[in-house]
Amino acid sequence: MNNHFEQKFDILLLDDSVEDRELYKRRLNALAGVEFEITEAGDAQDAYEKAMNCDFDCYVVDYSLPDGNGLDFVQDIIEKKNGSGKNAAIIIVTGKGSEEVAAKAFKMGAHEYLTKKSVSNGFFGRPVISAIERAQLTSQLEDFRNRLEKSNQALSEFTHTAAHDLKSPLRRISSYCEILMEDAAERLNDEDKTTLERMMVNAKRMQNLINSLLSYSLINHEEETPEEVDLKALMQEVVEEYGPQIEDENATVSIGDLPTMSAYRLRLHQLFSNLLSNSLKYKGEHDTIIEITAEKSPSCVTVAFKDNGQGIPEDMREHIFKDFKRLHANEEIEGTGLGLSICKKIVQLHGGKIWVESEGDEGTTFYFTLRPV
Ligand SMILES: Nc1ncnc2c1ncn2[C@@H]1O[C@H](COP(=O)(O)OP(=O)(O)OP(=O)(O)O)[C@@H](O)[C@H]1O
Ligand SMILES: [Mg+2]
Question: What's the confidence (pLDDT) of residue 3?
Answer without folding.
Answer: 47
